[in-house]
Amino acid sequence: MRKLYYRPFLVLLLALCITVPSLGQAPAAQPKALLWEISGQGLSKPSYLFGTIHAICPENFNMPEVVKNKLANTERLSLEVDMDAPNFMVELQQASILPNGSSLRSFFSDADYSLLNNHFKQTLKIDLAQLDRMKPFMLHSMLLSQLTQCQAVSYEQSLMEIAQKQGKEVIGLETVSEQLSAIDEMPASVQTTMLTNMVSNMDEARQSYRDMVQLYLQQDLAGLDALAREEYNDEEYREYEQAFLVNRNKRWIPVLEREARIQPTFFAVGAGHLTGKDGLLELLRKKGYTVLPVMR
Fold first, then answer.
1. Which of 70, 99, 142, 198 is the most buried (most CB within 10 A)?
2. Over the stretch 69-106, which tens digit does the pLDDT of each residue have?
3. Chain center to CA of 261
């Protein structure tokens, strides 16, 4: 089967980490649900875990009333990172820049660099020489509107606005630098291949994105697992999954536990973090918590 290297890019760009590390196992059967209640283990009140998609066209965006209600029943909102933190943009910019002495140009062959440079010039009116200190993966975010073909919105931004209106504190499970350090662990060759193949196969990438959105709207986490499973069979991607998905989930669990004990909290993270044997749902159950779907 031909590997569609742009598909991992879609997973990353949308922060919808829908891959699973144990590719030989079928995804576990579970209800179609994006919102889950966390209780037990001495929690005085339940907290909630909601799977998001970070980029979706306005016409497809829908914030279910049950999500709003459960957010209202908690004391705080926790995103992957605190997007409302004063130093958010500064951290993001610092983590996006290559170390001194490194060059974006050095990551690409002459042919691939020419391909990308022509694409950026034609579609964004930008010469890649202007971005020579940028990390390769950061170029992907500049192509988001070409992928979605709209001015995308995010569930995180909407949840944050609702929480602020309710006077709730917004916190993060990790810092921006911690999140982006996972990307740095991915081999540069994989990052560059994802980028060049997406540019070369934009129509197919857009169709994969539309497929992912439809599965998300159907709250079909198992379907999203299966969609990613089709192409994830390369050792380099296994290494990436370990860093970007599994390791982060395991780092988040003690943070999630601590915050849920302090106050009932509404946690919102990329939907793929919920599933699989190393997903947040299963990791919480192994800790003894009761984790139940909240149906529409």
1. 198
2. 999 999 999 999 887 777 778 877 887 888 888 899 99
3. 25
